[in-house]
């Protein structure tokens, strides 16, 4: 499976669920990336997450969705 941008994975979660918060998106992308590493032995996303106080963050994804703040993203 090719590497994807974190934003593309987040868009798929939004497409399937409809509404998520920034934190939910970040954690879902991180967990999906981890599962893919464990199961397939290769990364799902082409960026490395950073360790922040409240959990993992993909900076490019954060930059894309930061305007939402704590509001849900559709």
Short summary:
The chain has helices spanning 6-17, 22-40, 59-65, and strands spanning 50-52, 55-57. By secondary structure, the protein is mostly helical.
Characterization of this structure:
Helix 1 packs across helix 2 (22-40). The radius of gyration is 12 Å and the shape is globular. It has helices spanning 6-17, 22-40, 59-65; strands spanning 50-52, 55-57. The longest helix is centred in the middle third of the chain and has 19 residues, at 22-40. It is built from three helices and two strands. A two-stranded antiparallel sheet has the order 1-2. It has 74 residues and is mostly helical. A hairpin with a 2-residue loop joins strand 1 and strand 2. The mean pLDDT is 88.
Describe the secondary-structure layout.
Elements (H helix, E strand, L loop, with lengths): L5 H12 L4 H19 L9 E3 L2 E3 L1 H7 L9
Antiparallel strand pairs: 1-2
Which key features would you list for this structure?
single chain, 74 residues, mainly alpha, 2 strands, globular
């Amino acid at each position: 499976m090719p590497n994807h941008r974190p934003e593309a994975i987040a868009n798929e979660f939004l497409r399937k669920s409809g509404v998520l918060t920034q934190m939910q998106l970040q954690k879902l992308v991180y967990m999906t990336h981890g599962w893919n590493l464990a199961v397939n032995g290769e990364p799902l996303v082409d960026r490395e997450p950073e360790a922040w106080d409240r959990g993992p963050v993909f900076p490019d994804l954060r930059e894309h969705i930061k305007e939402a703040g704590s509001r849900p993203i559709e």
